[in-house]
């Protein structure tokens, strides 16, 4: 996993490890900027079926662009999601449904193109990618 930035470079408190730690006390907090992103490199190909994401209200993204590819290929746009600006867990199905049934990926990038925060910061408490390992 890689992220575009970390608030004040404070990796210990706001780093990418907090995206998947399962704790409601920790989060990934980006620094300022117009476009933030998270890239996931899978150790083997996966077929992604759902995306779960929990933002902090006031620091969410109005638009999430999903891109993916196989190893050695360029990222291609898969879908756009329009999350709500709240602290609730948001799931790609059924409210933000996107179709990935035919897409096998080794890499997934989620770009947060438009933050609800004036300075462009994004705060994510939980990120889950569900699917099938191939």
Structure description:
- InterPro entries: FA58C, Galactose-bd-like_sf.
- Belongs to the NR2C2AP family.
- Keywords: Nucleus.
- The chain is mainly β.
- The protein contains 1 helix and 8 strands.
- It has a domain of 91 residues: Jelly Rolls.
- Helix content is 3%, strand content 44%.
- The longest helix has 4 residues.
- It is globular.
- It starts with a strand and ends with a strand.
Topology:
Blueprint: E1 2-3, H1 11-14, E2 28-29, E3 36-55, E4 64-69, E5 76-81, E6 89-91, E7 104-112, E8 123-133
Antiparallel strand pairs: 1-3, 2-8, 3-6, 3-7, 3-8, 4-5, 4-7
CATH homology superfamily of one domain:
Galactose-binding domain-like
**Radius of gyration, in angstroms, nearest whole number:** 14 Å
CATH arch. level architecture of one domain: Sandwich
How many helices? Answer: 1
Order of helices and strands: EHEEEEEEE
Measure the end-to-end span. 19 Å
In what range is the share of β-strand residues? 35-45%
Kindly report the average pLDDT value: 88
> Which structural class should the secondary elements be placed in?
mainly beta
Percent of residues in helices comes to under 10%
**Total strand segments:** 8
Shape: globular
Q: State the CATH topology of one domain.
A: Jelly Rolls
Parts with pLDDT < 50 across at least 5 consecutive residues: 94-100
Profile the largest sheet.
Answer: 8 strands, antiparallel
What is the highest CATH level, the class of one domain? Mainly Beta
């Amino acid at each position: 996993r890689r992220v575009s930035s970390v608030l004040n470079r404070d990796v210990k408190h706001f780093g990418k490890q907090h995206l998947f730690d399962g704790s409601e006390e920790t989060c990934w907090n980006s620094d300022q900027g117009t476009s933030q992103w998270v890239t996931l490199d899978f150790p083997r190909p996966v077929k992604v079926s759902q995306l779960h994401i929990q933002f902090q209200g006031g620091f969410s993204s109005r638009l999430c662009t999903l891109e993916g590819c196989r190893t050695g290929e360029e990222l291609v746009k898969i879908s756009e999601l329009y999350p709500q600006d709240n602290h609730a867990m948001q799931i790609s199905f059924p409210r933000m449904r996107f179709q990935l049934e035919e897409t096998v990926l080794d890499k997934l990038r989620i770009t947060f193109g438009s933050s609800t925060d004036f300075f462009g910061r994004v705060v994510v408490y939980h990120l889950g990618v569900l699917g099938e390992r191939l």
